[in-house]
Each structure stands twice: as C-alpha cells, then as structure tokens.
Amino acid sequence: GVIPQISVMLGPCAGGAAYSPALTDFVFMVRDTSQMFITGPDVVQAVTGEQITQNGLGGADVHSGTSGVAHFAYDDEETCISEVRYLLSLLPQNNRENPPAVETGDPADRPGDALLDLVPADGNRAYDMRKVIEELVDEGEYLEVHERWATNIICALARMGGQVVAVVANQPASCAGVLDIHASEKAARFVQTCDAFNIPIVTLVDVPGFLPGVDQEHNGIIRHGAKLLYAYCNATVPRISLVLRKAYGGAYIVMDSQSIGADLTYAWPINEIAVMGAEGAANVIFRREIAGADDPDAMRAQKIKEYKTELMHPYYAAERGLVDDVIDPTETREVLISALAMLRNKHADLPARKHGNPPQ
C-alpha cells in the first residue's frame, strides 16, 4: 500500500531538491532554521535585482502563510516533532488500512447548547468556525492543516466518537467565508489526501459564494474552483455535509452538496440555501417592479421580505430534497457521529482507469 509521507524541514533546501518535500502529503517547517526555494537570494538578486533574505524568500512563515507550500510552521524543533507525532496518531499505516480508533471518553450524545450562542442567525454577522469545531469534535481537540494560508476555509483532522474524521469548513471570520482560488486549492488537496487514506469527510457549510472580481476571474477561479468540485466527486470515503447558516450559488454546490454525491446532508433550522442572498436576488428578479414603483426603497424591502418568506424559509431545502434532514443544532454532534457509524462500511469503486484528469 501507499504510506503517508511527511517532510520535516530542519534546514535549508534549495534547487531541484525543494521539489521533494512539496511532493509529500504534509510539510513541516521550523522558523528561522528552515528555508525552501528553487533559486536562492543571491540568484534572485543577480537576475531580477531584488534583495531579500533567505527567510524572506522561503522561510517557514512565507511557505505556511503566503505560498501554501508548507502545511505547518513552528518556533522550535521540539514542538515541531511533537506535532508530527500527533499527526501520525491520526493517520493509518497505509492507504489500505483505516485510521486508528481510540476511546476518548467524550460522550457521543453530549449536548451542544453552546452552538446556539456561537452561530448568529443573522447571516451578515461573523463568527469563528473554529469554536464550532471545538464543540463538535472529541474533547475539543483538532489539528488544523494550513492554518495560516487561505484562512477563509478551515481544514482539520480530529476525532468524533473515537474515529478520525476530516473537517472542511468555511470560516466566516475571514473574508466572510467566501471561496476564492487559494481556498479552493487548499480544500481540494486536503479532500484528496483524506480520501487517499480512508478518512471520512465532514463538511460544515456557511458560504456566501465565490469571491467576485477581475483578479479572481483572470487568474482562473473557474479552473481552480473546479479542483474542489473534482476532489469531492472523486472521493469514495464517507461524506457528510451540514449547512449551518447560508449556502449560496455555485459555492454551495462545490461544498459537498447532495447534488455532487454527499452521502448524507443536514441543515440547521436557520439555513438559507439559494442561488444568492435575498437582497441580491430581489434586485435582479424584481428590478422592473422596483424601478417603476413610486417608492423604490419600500418596494425593494417588500420584495426582499416576500423572497425570504417564500423561498428561503428553514424547511425549503428539505421540502425540495436538497438536504436529508433539518436538525436541532444542540444535537449536531450526536447526529454526525451516528451518521459516521452508519457509513463506516461504505464501499465505492471508481471506474477502472490509470487515473482521472483533474482540473489544472
């Protein structure tokens, strides 16, 4: 079988050798002592005239926060090695085995009353998705991958009911949790890695859409966003998604919706699954009525209210089969653990072939 590959960078790595860690599943770096680059500062200065230090060009903070080449960065070797051990405790020995299960002592039916206060019903208010994850996983412990890169999406390994799970979640506290090029790439790679090593995927959805803008379009947001879509569609591990609050447009589809093959899909009662928010939709759909009204502002407010009432009420998604069930937020942990147990023996085979052709 294929074993998990981890690179721990304790010193400089330059030239073609820099490709070696980048090809592994996880890359760890230590600040100030490890650097990684194809061409060093001297060559950069000679060719481009730019002056920069080794750390400024390819240090741990650069690769963990800017380039996304490194998954983890730590201040010292001792902490780094300790976190490598923790990661190994969450991974199987190879791709033919399941991740190791342990008894954590955290009850599966532990109520999540705190979730009611953590997530505001107002879709325009931000909150920290990390606190939601802490409430759901065993003993509040998880290992976040690429914590400092593409912070508008969270990728983490944790345990639920003693079983290792992967958590992919939008982060409303960073850019409102919108999907952009880097977030799509980050999540796609994580989904593929977890699928390779038999780790079930739980997706927590609170996404306003893809990031609009000329820069995003010109740099291929369509192509990069498709990487996440491809990764989910190609994954054969158990896949469970939960819409916490809002899920708009193509970003909702990409975040492991039922339409792309999620095994089980749930939603909280405050969910809003739609092409776009009520304000934007009303301005497009009813623009003639609004423009022709004696009081456009009053007409706009009326149409927004009508749109929310008729098309964005909590059970609209369930009535149309977009989700399997609308659940009580306080019972989320119990529901997810039960769903994971039900899907534990899931078996899915992809068509026989050498490999797929993912978007580049």
Polypeptide structure, described:
By secondary structure, the protein is an alpha/beta fold. The protein folds into 2 domains: 6-88, 2-enoyl-CoA Hydratase, Chain A, domain 1; 115-277 and 312-342, 2-enoyl-CoA Hydratase, Chain A, domain 1 (Alpha-Beta Complex), CATH 3.90.226.10. The chain is 38% helix and 17% strand. It contains 16 helices and 13 strands. The protein has helices spanning 19-22, 41-48, 54-58, 60-67, 77-88, 115-118, 129-136, 181-196, 214-218, 221-234, 249-254, 278-285, 287-292, 296-311, 316-319, 332-342; strands at 6-9, 13-14, 26-30, 36-37, 72-74, 142-145, 153-160, 163-170, 201-207, 239-248, 264-267, 272-274, 325-326. The strands form 3 sheets. Strands 6, 7, 8, 9, 10, 11, 12 and 13 form an 8-stranded mixed beta sheet that branches. The protein has a 3-stranded parallel beta sheet with strand order 1-3-5, sandwiched between helices. The chain has a two-stranded parallel ribbon with strand order 2-4. A hairpin with a 7-residue loop joins β6 (142-145) and β7 (153-160). α8 (181-196) packs parallel to α10 (221-234) and α12 (278-285) crosses α14. The model has no long low-confidence stretch (mean pLDDT 93).
